[in-house]
Amino acid sequence: MSDDSYVLEARNVSKHFTVRGAAGRARVVRAVEDASVALRPGGVLALVGESGSGKTTLARLLARFHPPTEGEILLRGEPLRRGRRAARAYHAEVQLIFQDPFGSLNPLHRVRYTLDRTLRLHEPGLDRAGRRRRVVELLERVSLSPAAEVAEKFPHELSGGQRQRVVIARALAVRPKVLLGDEPISMLDVSIRLDMLNLLHRLRADEGLALLYITHDIASARYLCDDIAVMYAGRMVESGPRERLIGAPQHPYTKLLVESSPDPERGAAGRDELFGDADQLGEPPSLIDPPDGCRFHPRCPFAMAECRTQSPPRTELGDGHWTHCWLHQKGRAGELAGTTFASAVAATRGADGVARQESAR
Ligand SMILES: Nc1ncnc2c1ncn2[C@@H]1O[C@H](COP(=O)(O)OP(=O)(O)OP(=O)(O)O)[C@@H](O)[C@H]1O
Q: Which one-letter DSSP state was computed for residue 216?
C-alpha cells in the first residue's frame, strides 16, 4: 500500500493489551489485528464499525498514544522516531479529537487561555499580540463568533457544539496535516451534527487536511467521506471508495451495516437501530479469545467451512476497493448481490426460527 501521496499510514498494525483476569491470570486482548489504513492530504477516510471493533485503538496508534505490537506507522513514508522531541514534532502534524468536548477542555480555563497555551508551546516565536490575533483567527476559522467574546468564556458557558469547535480550533492551532476525529459528533445534539460535518468538510477542502473520521454511523460516513474502511472485531473487513462500498458491499458485515443504516434523510441513527439485526445474531466476539478463521463467521449467514478455520486473504477488487472474505476466493461473491442480509439469515434458519448448525451450502 506504499504511496508517496499518503501523509499518514498504518501498515499491518496490531495492538494487543495484556489484562489481568479475575483470578489474576494474564490475558491478551487482541484489540487490533493486521490493520492498514492510509490518509491522503485533503482526503477523508471513515473508519466504521460497532462498539469494541478497535476503531479507537487504531486511532490511538495513529496518534502515537500507544506503540503498535506489530506493524508500523509512517508519516509521509517515514517510520516514527523515538523520543520526546520526535513525539512533539509528530503531534504538530497529527492531532486527535475525542468524542467528548467537555472532557477535552479544562473547565477552569477560559477559551483564550486554552488556545494561547497551545500557541505558546507550538509557536514560541509569536509574541503576545501575535497570539491574540491567532486566537481570534482560529475561532473564526471554526465559525465561533464574535470571536473576541467567545475567547473570554469558560467551557461551561458554551454549548456542546461550541465546545467541540473550540477543541477543533485548539487542534488547528498547531497547524496539523492530519486530524483524527474519534466520533467527533456523536455526543453533540442531532440538530448541530450536520454543521459540524460541514465544518470538517470545509477544513479538508480549504486547508488540505487529511481526516480520519471514526464513526459507528455509516450515514454520516457517506456524507463526509471519500473512502470508507470497515472494522469488525479488531480486523478490517472491507475498504473502498464510498459509493462502491455502500452501493455494492462486498463483505457480509458491510452489507449488514449498509442495510441496517437509516435513510440518510433521517440523519444519524442510534446504536440499537444500527446494530439491531446484528444483535439478533448474538454478541460480537470476545477479543480475548476471538473465533478462528473469519471473526464474523459466527454471525454470517454465508459462512462455509473455510470461514471457520482460516482467516480470509485480501481480495483486490480494483479502484482501491478490497475485502477479506472467502466468498470472493470461492467464486460465490455474486450471492451477496442476489439477496439481503436478513433473507440470507432467514434462509439459514429452520421453520422454527432456530439457526441450523451448518449452512445448507
Ligand atoms: N488500554 C486498554 N487495555 C485493555 N483493553 C483495551 C484497552 N483499550 C482498548 N481495549 C479493548 O480493545 C477493544 C477495542 O476497543 P476500542 O475502544 O478500540 O473499540 P471501538 O471500536 O473504538 O469502540 P467504541 O466505539 O465503543 O469506542 C475492546 O475490547 C476494549 O475493551
A: S
